[in-house]
Every structure is written in structure tokens, then in C-alpha cells.
Design a protein that fits this description.
heterodimer; A: 439 residues; mainly alpha; two-stranded antiparallel ribbon; two-stranded antiparallel sheet; 8% strand; B: mainly alpha; Formate dehydrogenase/DMSO reductase fold; 2 strands; 78% helix; globular
Chain lengths: 439, 341
């Protein structure tokens, strides 16, 4: 394989692995902060134990998220030197801002929070975890602004053979970035909520720590219901932005080949890339796709054939990932709504509890699929319409990348297994028993 | 002017990274040689506990600023140093995870596994960062396209290795002093003795490195052209000597601060000598990456400068506060805490 292909695999492995840990930290930190806030407000020790218990799971995740994040930043230089030279003026600055304004806040105050339970006043200690929450959510904004610029470049001029910043404000406030941010954040909160509900369900089913886990469940279910429903709305906005900014991605995600006015939406379809058509198209809803994506049921939806073959992304992968992600999104909302109605007495709804346990992996799959749609669907561009991925690599020996890719895969697999095993261990063990004196 | 400011800021960020992560990398490398019991090891891990993560962010920032301010140099530097950089990253990954994982399963084999990862994840990056920076000072064989010519082994030249040793020793002394500040009783005494003994090796390697710098690099040219800059290497020598003075009188905090100063001044010494190069080419000076041919546009540099001037001091203030707040000895009570490493 050539350097570009190997580098793409390496970046994909590194990103998807990184993003196994990030969404849980983004969402769980807010829940932990809320738990501690309730403890500080009411003095109820149970909420302190909750903050510590879920905080421990958060910490195991956080460590992996941080160390795997560093490799992503450095890979732009090591593997994508062409890209870094061409767009570093814009892209590099966004990464630097992210570190300066967000990562420091997050990691410094997390250290203080972990080691400061007995050293700081209750209120100040609680403020620390809120600062961590603000820092981590803020970092998500900056990195998604950077990613959105690759999807929909704005605020730049081409000068001296590279892209240079012309309007910083336009880059950091473009609607594509704002919508992407909300889409990702809501997905992260949904994921964290389903993890908390799932583990809580396990303990409630086993009739242990019922009060502790019912309280956790009730905090999480609010997140689940609000975020999963909102995300369907935001996802729709995102699709409409995509229609404007990245028509080839949308056409692939929907597997539409022919340009048509009032395009129908097929509930069942599967692309045949070879012959530029779909193997099956069934259960069509007339004009629905045009209405959904373009806001007008008679609007013209551009099909993939409108672009030369070399400007289309891999259709099947984009389409399948998109369909599955959307389907999972609706499933989350449905289950969250059911859980919401059972929130006061979850122990009486045993089937629901089993379902919630089984659902723990699903949001992880959904966010990974989302990234596959975003990044694979952007191909063959690294910066949509501006730079091709094929022109973006480093001039290095392929064997170097081959070795590092193998190292990434093996180290990450081992670490991933260890991390999830540890999380599972602590989640299933339940909260620490109360110290003797407090019983 | 903007370019000079950014060049200095670039140097300062790497210097702060070395100063802060330096002690925990050094302490990680020292750990197997100085700890005699599981309790010693736990004191060592917990002495770095609240800080290592925040320290590592300085690496992300230094890398990010290289990318933002000098994207072309970033691309050439990082791709030409591909293998050493990825080894550093893998080391840092294993090390970071070791902190979080080792105390989570009460099993000697499990802890030993992470102790090993932590050692190599500390020693390796310390050594390789030194090798990388010495090669940057010396110049690497990059051609006009910014592509490395010649094998990776060419990075392991005597001067590069000397740079690696220098970093390891700087960090070991720095880490030993941190442990002397944080550890109680016997471990404090051993850490102090280690710092004291290692200091002589550091002195030896530092002298050799300065000699090597004179003969192998062009760093001194800037100093000879503007002799007032010699303040920096003189202050460096002074800081190194005063460190020893404070070690002798067992003033650990003062010695640690002097050792921090030594690391910062050593980095700045190299960086000032490098100007206007960020990565000199050993093939032909016209292939070198300089502030002139690799910087971002003035608009980006101005925006980033505003961000840096506002946020970096704020970060320094709250991190300094954290050091102040958690600078006391690791106590037995602290080790029994549920959150302790």
C-alpha cells in the first residue's frame, strides 16, 4: 500500500479509537458536576458518593482520551505534511487555540478536583469540576470548528500557493461548525446518558444500591430524553447544511444517482457502485427527500452522476453508515422516552432494564458511524473543494507508516480492552461502601 | 518583529514544557532505581498525581503553536522526524495510561506491567526529545522539498546522542529534586542523594554538550554576533551551579526552582542560537526552514498572539496556584484516599 492509504488507515484508527473515550468524558463530566452540585446544595452524602463513583469511570476514560488525542494533533505533521503546509495558517491556529483556552483548563482543574476533595471548600471543589466540564466542551467546539473548516472551508484566500486566513470570525462562527458542534455534543450526552442508565439498570436489576442507582438513572434519563430528541432536530439541520456545503456527501449518504426534481426517499435501498445505480429501491415516499434535504418538495436533488467518478466518495460505506446512524438515533429517542415514563420506578420495568443494558454499546457504534459518514463522505477531498486527500500526504517511506500503523493497532487494541475491562469492573462493583463512622 | 516575537514564544513554550513535564519524565525514569517498596512507588506516583496531565498539555500547546505559527516548519519537522516522534507518542500514551491503570487492580503482576510501561514511557521520550532537539540544533539532511534524505540512523550521531543524555540527566536531577520536595523521611533523603550524585554526571554531559555545540553546530554564531546574548548561557551555567549549592544545603524547593531555570535557559540557549532557523538543513542552508519561509500569515500571527498573550498568563497563574496548593509532602493519609494513584 502507498503512504496515503496507510496514513488514511492510521488516521482512521487513531480517530475512531480516540472518539471511543471522548463522548463519554464530554457527557459524564456534566452529570458528575450536577451530582456534586446537588451534594453541595443539599448536603446529601449519597450524591457525593455518586459523583465519586461516576467520577472514577470518567477518569479511566479521560486518561485514554488525553493520550490518544496528542497523537492526532501530531499526525497532521508526521503523515499529512502536504496538508499542514497548505492549510496550517488556518487549521493550525484552531488547534493551538483549543489547547490554550480549553485543554489547560480541563486537565489542570481535573487534577485539582481529583486530589482536592479534602483540601478545598465544598463550593470551590464543585467549581473545579464545572471548569473541567466547560473546558472539555469548549475544546470540542474548537476541534469541530477545525473539522468543519475541512468540510466547508470559509474565511480564507489562496495566496502564495497556500490557503491563508482572511476572516477568523467567519471561520469560528460559520453555521456548519455551530450545527456540527451541537450534533456532536448532543450525541456525546446521549451516549453518556445511555452508559449511566445501562450500568444503573444492571444494579437495579440485581436489587443492589437501589436508591443510589435510581437517583443516577433519573439524572441520566433527563439527558437521554432531551438530547436524543433534540439531536434528531439538529441532525436534520445538519443534513440541510450538508446539502448546501457538500452535495456529493449527501448524495452518497442517500445513494441518489440521478438528478431529479422532487426526489423520493426510499426506506429500503442499497447502492451498486459498479453500475451507478441501486440494487434495490423500495417503499419510496414521493418527494420526501427533496423536502427533507432542501426544504422544498419540488426542489432539484443532484444525483452522484452529476459529478465525475473521481470526485465521488465511496458510496456504499457512506450510505450504510448514514442509514445505520440515523436508525440508531431514532432508536435512542424511542427508548429514552420509554425510560422517561418509567423513571420513578425503574425496578418495576425489568424488560426495559435488560434493554438498557444491551444498549450500552449502541451509542458508541452510532458516533463511530457518524464520523465515518463525515470523513469518508468528504472524500476524495481533504478540504472539500480545495485540496484532494491524494495531494496532502508526507513524503516519507511507506514502511515507516506501515510499522507505525501496526503499532497503533496493536497498542490501541490492548489499551482499549484494558480500559473497557477496568470500566466494567468498577461499574459492576458499584459504589464504595460507606465508611464505618458514617453508617 | 511579529516573527521574532513568535519565534521566542515558540521557544518559551517548548522550554516551559521541558521544565514541567521534565520533572515527571525524570521521576518516572528514576522510579525503579530509587523506590524500595510499593509504598515508595505510590509516593512517587502520587507526587506527580495532580500535575502530570496539565504538564503534558504544554506539549500539545507547543506542538499546536508550531503548527499555527510556522506550519511549513511543523510539516517538515514532524514528517522528517517521523519515527522518533511516534516513539515519543507511544511512550507518552503508555505512561499516561499507567498512571490511571496501575492502582486500579490490586495485583503485583498488573502493577509491575504498568511500572515497566511507565519507566519506558518516561525514559524513552526524555531521551528522544533530547536526540530530536540536538539534531534540530545541528541541522538535519532535508532537501529543497522538505524531505529527509538519508536514513533515520543518521539522527543517532554522537551529538544527537549527547543531546539525549543531556535531557535525560537534566530531567533526572529535576525529578529527583521534585521527589525530595514531595516525599517524606527516608525517601526524601535518598532522592536528595540521587540529585546530588546525578548532578555531577549532568555537569560532565553539559560541558561535553556545550563543546559539541561549539564544534558541531552554528548556534554560537548568533552569540558572537551579538555578545550581549551571552547573558543566556552565562545565566544557564550559574543556574546549574546554584542548583548544586541548594542541593548541598538541602533546600529542595529552591534547588528545584533553579533546576527548572536551568532547563528553561538551556532550551532558550539553543533556540536563540538557532534564530532565524527553526530547522536548519545540513545539506544546504537555503533548504533550511526559517521564520521567513515557514511562518503563517500576519493576520493569523496577530490573532494567535492576542490569544496567547491573554490565555497563557492565565494558565500560568492557575497552574502555579495548583503547584502551591499541592506542593506539600505526600502523607500516609493521602495514600489511603480512594482517588490516590
Amino acid at each position: 500500500m502507498d503512504v496515503i492509504t496507510l496514513s488514511r488507515w492510521q488516521f482512521a484508527v487513531a480517530t475512531l479509537f480516540h472518539f471511543l473515550f471522548v463522548p463519554l468524558t464530554l457527557g459524564l463530566v456534566v452529570m458528575v458536576a450536577i451530582m456534586e452540585t446537588i451534594y453541595v446544595r443539599t448536603g446529601n452524602e449519597e450524591y457525593k458518593r455518586m459523583a465519586k463513583f461516576w467520577g472514577k469511570i470518567f477518569l479511566i476514560n479521560f486518561a485514554l482520551g488525553v493520550v490518544t488525542g496528542i497523537t492526532l494533533e501530531f499526525q497532521f505533521g508526521t503523515n499529512w505534511a502536504g496538508y499542514s503546509k497548505y492549510v496550517g495558517d488556518i487549521f493550525g491556529s484552531l488547534l493551538a487555540v483549543e489547547a490554550t483556552v480549553a485543554f489547560f483548563l480541563e486537565s489542570t482543574f481535573l487534577g485539582i478536583w481529583v486530589f482536592g476533595w479534602d483540601r478545598l471548600s465544598k463550593k470551590f471543589h464543585n467549581a473545579c469540576i464545572w471548569l473541567v466540564a466547560i473546558g472539555s466542551n469548549f475544546s470540542a467546539y474548537w476541534i469541530l470548528v477545525a473539522n468543519s473548516w475541512m468540510q466547508h472551508p470559509v474565511g480564507y484566500v489562496i495566496r502564495d500557493g497556500r490557503a491563508e486566513l482572511s476572516n477568523f470570525w467567519a471561520v469560528i462562527t460559520q453555521p456548519f461548525a455551530v450545527i456540527t458542534f451541537f450534533h456532536v455534543i448532543l450525541a456525546a450526552y446521549t451516549l453518556a446518558a445511555f452508559v449511566v442508565m445501562g450500568f444503573s439498570a444492571y444494579h437495579i436489576l440485581r436489587k443492589q444500591h437501589i436508591s443510589f442507582f435510581t437517583k443516577s438513572f433519573r439524572i441520566a434519563v433527563i439527558f437521554a430524553v432531551v438530547c436524543s430528541i433534540l439531536n434528531i432536530v439538529v441532525g436534520d439541520f445538519h443534513g440541510k447544511e450538508m446539502a448546501k456545503a457538500q452535495p456529493t456527501k449527501l448524495a452518497s449518504a442517500e445513494a441518489v444517482w440521478k438528478t431529479a426534481k422532487g426526489a423520493p426517499f426510499y426506506l429500503i435501498a442499497f447502492p451498486d457502485e459498479q453500475n451507478e445505480r441501486n440494487y434495490v429501491e423500495a417503499l419510496g415516499i414521493p418527494k420526501f427527500l427533496s423536502w427533507l434535504a432542501l426544504g422544498d418538495k419540488d426542489a432539484e436533488f443532484k444525483g452522484l452522476k452529476a459529478w465525475p467518478k473521481e470526485e465521488r466518495p465511496p458510496v456504499t460505506m457512506t450510505f450504510v453508515s448514514f442509514r445505520l446512524m440515523v436508525g440508531l438515533g431514532f432508536l435512542f429517542a424511542l427508548v429514552a422516552i420509554i425510560a422517561w415514563f418509567r423513571r420513578n420506578r425503574p425496578e418495576e420495568s425489568r424488560p426495559l432494564l435488560y434493554i438498557l443494558i444491551g444498549m450500552i454499546p449502541l451509542p458508541y457504534i452510532a458516533v463511530s458511524l457518524g464520523w465515518i459518514v463525515t470523513e469518508v463522505g468528504r472524500q476524495p477531498w481533504i478540504v472539500y473543494g480545495v485540496m484532494k486527500t491524494a495531494d496532502a500526504g508526507s513524503k516519507i517511506a511507506a514502511y515507516q507508516v506501515g510499522i507505525s500503523l501496526a503499532a497503533f493497532i496493536s497498542i490501541y487494541t490492548l489499551l482499549g480492552v484494558a480500559c473497557f475491562a477496568l470500566m466494567l469492573k468498577f461499574a459492576l462493583k458499584g459504589p464504595e461502601p460507606l465508611p464505618e463512622a458514617e453508617k | 518583529m511579529l516573527l521574532i516575537i513568535w519565534f521566542l514564544l515558540w521557544g518559551v513554550l517548548w522550554a516551559v514544557y521541558f521544565m514541567l513535564d521534565g520533572f515527571d519524565l525524570g521521576l518516572g525514569a528514576l522510579n525503579p532505581f530509587i523506590s524500595r517498596s510499593e509504598k515508595d512507588r505510590r509516593i512517587i506516583y502520587n507526587s506527580m498525581g495532580p500535575f502530570w496531565d496539565g504538564n503534558e498539555v504544554w506539549l500539545i500547546t507547543a506542538g499546536g503553536v508550531t503548527f499555527a505559527a510556522f506550519p511549513t516548519a511543523y510539516a517538515v519537522m514532524f514528517s522528517s522526524l517521523y519515527t522518533p516522534l511516534l516513539l515519543i507518542l507511544f511512550g507518552l500514551i503508555l505512561r499516561g495510561v499507567a498512571f490511571e491503570f496501575r492502582s486500579k487492580v490490586d495485583n503485583p503482576g498488573w502493577r509491575l506491567l504498568w511500572d515497566i510501561c511507565h519507566f519506558f514511557g518516561s525514559f524513552g521520550p526524555a531521551l528522544l526529545l533530547g536526540v530530536a532537539f540536538a539534531n534540530i540544533f545541528k541541522g538535519v539532511p532535508i532537501d529543497g522539498e522538505g524531505v529527509l534524505q538519508g536514513s533515520l540512523l543518521s539522527l543517532l550521531n554522537p551529538y544527537g546522542i549527547l543531546g539525549g543524555l543531556l535531557f535525560v540527566l537534566l530531567f533526572l536531577v529535576h525529578g529527583a529534586l521534585w521527589l525530595a520536595v514531595k516525599a517524606p523521611g527516608d525517601l526524601e533523603a535518598r532522592a536528595g542523594r540521587a540529585a546530588s550524585g546525578l548532578w555531577w554526571f549532568l555537569l560532565l554531559v553539559a560541558v561535553l554538550f556545550l563543546g559539541g555545540t561549539w564544534s558541531e553546530t552554528k548556534l554560537f554564531n548568533n552569540y558572537l554576533a551579538r555578545p550581549f546574548l551571552l547573558v543566556v548561557p552565562l545565566a544557564l551555567v550559574l543556574a546549574l551551579l546554584v542548583t548544586k549549592g541548594f542541593i548541598v544545603v538541602r533546600k529542595w524547593v529552591a534547588a528545584w526552582l533553579c533546576s527548572a531555570g536551568t532547563i528553561v535557559l538551556a532550551t532558550l540557549f539553543g533556540v536563540i542560537g538557532l534564530y532565524p532557523n527553526l530547522l536548519p538543513s545540513s545539506l544546504d542552508p537555503k533548504f533550511s526552514m526559517t521564520v521567513y519561509n515557514s511562518a503563517s500569515s500576519p493576520l493569523t500571527l496577530k490573532i494567535m498572539l492576542a490569544v496567547a498573550l491573554v490565555f497563557v498568563p492565565i494558565v500560568m497563574i492557575y497552574q502555579a496556584w495548583a503547584y502551591f496548593k499541592f506542593g506539600d509532602k505526600v502523607t500516609d493519609e493521602a495514600l489511603t484516599q480512594d482517588e490516590a494513584y
